[in-house]
C-alpha cells in the first residue's frame, strides 16, 4: 500500500510531462522521479512547481538536477517517512544532507493517504444522491469522458460541472490554483505556458466547476500504471464553502472506478486530512515536503536553519538544543553589545 502512494507521485510527474511535452523532460529511475525544463527553454517559468519524488530518504539522486531546476522555479522534494517513531531524527540527518547541497526555503509535513474505491463508495452516497437529484448527474455521462472533452456532468442554477475542453479553461485552472495557494494573480508568462496544455490525455482527466463565466474549482485524476491519484483539488477563495470540492472529488473517484482502479491515493495537508477521511481515505504515513529555490538568501537561510525554524518539530523534539541555541545566541548578542560599548567608550576617552 505504501508503495502505491509513492507510485501516485511518480505518475503525477509523468502526467505533467505529457501535459507539456514541448516544455519538460522526465528524469526518472527506479527510485527517483523529477520533471525538468528542456534545455532549449532558456527562461524558467514561475509555474508549475516541480515535484522531486524519492521512494526512500536513502535514495537522494538527481540533486544536481534539482539545483539546476530550482533557478527561478520552486522544486518540492517529496520524501516519505515510513517510520513515524524515528521520523524526526532521520529527517534531521536528511535535512542536513539536502542543505549541504542547496538552500531550503520551505518545509511542510504532508500525509500519504489511500482509498479503496468500492468499499468507501457508501461514504459518498449522499454526495452522489445530491449530484443526481439536485444537479442532474447521470452515471452514463461518465462513459463519454473516456472519449470526449467538455462533457457536462452536472449543472446547478448558476454553475456547471464539466470536463476540461479549452485552453482558456486550462489557464483558468492555473489562475484558480495560484489565487488559492498564493493569493496572487497568475503571471503572464505562466499563462502563456498553460495555454499550451494538452487538454485530453490517456493519463489524466480534469473536472472543473464554472461559475460567473470562469473556472472557480477544479481537480485532476491521474490514471497511473497501477493506481489512480488525485491532485490539484482547488477552489478560489471567494467560492469556498459552497461544496464544490466535494462534488469534484466524488466525480473524479467515479471516473477512477469506471477505469477499473481498485485504489486511489493522494497526499494532503494535515488540515485537509480529516476532510478526506470522511469520504474513505486512510492515512498511511507522513511525507516531508521540502521546498528549495536557488535564489533564496543563503545567509538568512543558514541562520534560520541553525535555530531549527524550518523543522516544525525541532522545538518539540529537541527542546534542549533549541533553547540552548536561543540562550547561547542571546548571551553572544549581549557579549558583543557589551564589547562594542566598551570599545566605543575607550575610543572616545
Automatic annotation (TrEMBL):
Keywords linked to the UniProt accession: Membrane, Transferase, Transmembrane, Transmembrane helix
Residues annotated as domain N-acetyltransferase: 159-319
TM spans (from-to): 322-345
Gene Ontology molecular-function annotations: acyltransferase activity, transferring groups other than amino-acyl groups
Protein origin, superkingdom: Eukaryota
Protein name from the UniProt record: GCN5-related N-acetyltransferase
Organism: Naegleria gruberi (Amoeba)
